[in-house]
Backbone:
């Protein structure tokens, strides 16, 4: 069964360092997303990406964050200068369609720990 | 931000009992999805409901979308320990909405 894969599963970094989280969405999906979940809190939307550009982003997704689809398969989330409060599980998701019509399939997540 | 409230927050029952989890909002959703999340893993989609009043069944799980598309429920019949997990509802506002708003989840524990 097709699945969304994410790497690394866990990354520990020092505050101020750059981090890149990688995702391989399901191959025939057109819409890509990053969500995050701080320990014990809700899953929160960060950004959606379609047709090689950001289609929507939340207030969390500030200038420290960027996304890229560098080739036909990978979808990356970069945090330029990590802060302690960026520690969270980051989930990549993909869908065939958009929000109301599209069912999201999530990866297993990348746990980011900022020290 | 469209707020989805889930209740109860925690639910612990004995194997064989029935349970219902609720998801409510003041907003109208074009669709609503239910996910199950295990610790340290990503949410796994269980079902999507799109029509007001719609009822979907997945083995012992029954999902209902409210007539006004503002609320939904998940009912589990004869719960088993394997049903233990965090159940999340998530809603999309419009067919052009690129994001889902998630509820905080209901942690279900089924005791053997």
Residues:
């Amino acid at each position: 069964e097709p699945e969304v894969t994410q790497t690394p599963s866990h990354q520990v970094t020092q505050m101020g360092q750059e981090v890149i989280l990688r995702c391989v969405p399901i191959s025939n999906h057109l819409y890509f997303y990053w969500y995050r979940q701080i320990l014990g809190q809700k899953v929160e939307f960060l950004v959606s990406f379609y047709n090689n550009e950001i289609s929507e982003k939340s207030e969390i997704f500030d200038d420290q964050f960027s996304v890229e689809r560098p080739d036909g398969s990978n979808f990356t989330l970069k945090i330029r200068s990590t802060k302690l409060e960026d520690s969270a599980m980051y989930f990549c998701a993909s869908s065939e369609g958009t929000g109301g019509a599209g069912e999201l399939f999530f990866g297993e997540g990348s746990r980011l720990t900022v020290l | 931000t469209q707020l989805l409230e889930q209740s109860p927050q925690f639910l612990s029952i004995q194997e064989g009992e029935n349970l219902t989890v609720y998801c409510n909002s003041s907003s109208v959703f074009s669709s609503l999805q239910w996910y199950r999340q295990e610790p340290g893993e990503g949410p796994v989609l269980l079902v999507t409901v799109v029509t007001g009043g719609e009822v979907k069944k997945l083995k012992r799980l029954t999902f209902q979308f409210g007539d006004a598309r503002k609320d939904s429920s998940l009912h589990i019949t004869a719960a088993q320990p394997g049903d233990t997990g965090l159940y999340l509802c998530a809603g999309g506002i419009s067919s052009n909405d690129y994001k889902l708003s998630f509820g905080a989840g209901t942690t279900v524990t089924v005791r053997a």
